[in-house]
Amino acid sequence: DRSKAQHLLRGVSISCLCDVTDPIIGPTGAARRYASQKGASEVEVSLLEDGLINYIHCIQEQFGIDIGNLAYGAAAGGVAGGLHAVCGSKLFSGFDQIALWTGLEDAVLQADLIITGEGCLDHQSLEGKVIRGMADLAKKYDKALIIITGINKLREQDQHRLGNPTIWSVMEVAKNKSDAMQHIEQYIRELIVRNKTDWANYAP
């Protein structure tokens, strides 16, 4: 039970750094939003959602804590929510904490151009992921931002939420996903050359 965990962890504080702000279940939860990205079929997504619902019920029965709507609870497939319930861990934005530890904001302030990237740029990127954090810092300090992504699935109207960055998609030049993964360096170089006329816009 939780009292045993608390006894074993007496004097220990656990912080869980999360890359998403979503709850465990529902349309933006661990299964319905993220499982298909990892290769799950529609049937498997439904099974995973049912399992997470059961997971929430078990935790509520055993520990008297409802983590169903817990912010950051979906991180790592619901592990963050479980750590909070069983170990009393505090859940934080991973980007914010790492940015603080590394002095990222100061680096952005001194930069002329910010380049960041993600394998797949989609609606998930607008949540607690690195892309959103970098976009927010770029907007805060009025810095130019280039996002290099494997594939861009983000709707045009949602790109405004990132401050209208320049987006380069590897799939614009690659034959297919397999080709992109095998020759990623080549295609990033090609994107740089293809967009070389843009570099003048980023001069200090």
Structure commentary:
The chain has 204 residues and is of the alpha/beta class. It contains 10 helices and 5 strands, in the order H-E-H-H-H-E-H-H-E-H-E-H-E-H-H. The protein has helices at residues 2-8, 30-35, 42-63, 79-87, 94-102, 104-110, 130-140, 156-159, 177-182, 184-194, and strands at residues 15-18, 90-93, 113-121, 144-152, 166-169. The protein has a 3-stranded parallel sheet. Strands 1-2 form a two-stranded parallel sheet. The N and C termini lie far apart (59 Å). The mean pLDDT is 89.
Class from helix and strand fractions: alpha/beta
What percent of the residues sit in helical stretches (DSSP H or I)? 40-55%
Specify the number of helices: 10
Q: Uncertain segments of ≥5 residues (pLDDT<50)?
A: none
Amino- and carboxy-terminal Cα gap: 59 Å
What overall form do the CA principal axes indicate? globular
What's the SSE pattern?
A: HEHHHEHHEHEHEHH
* Rg over CA atoms: 20 Å
Mean pLDDT: 89
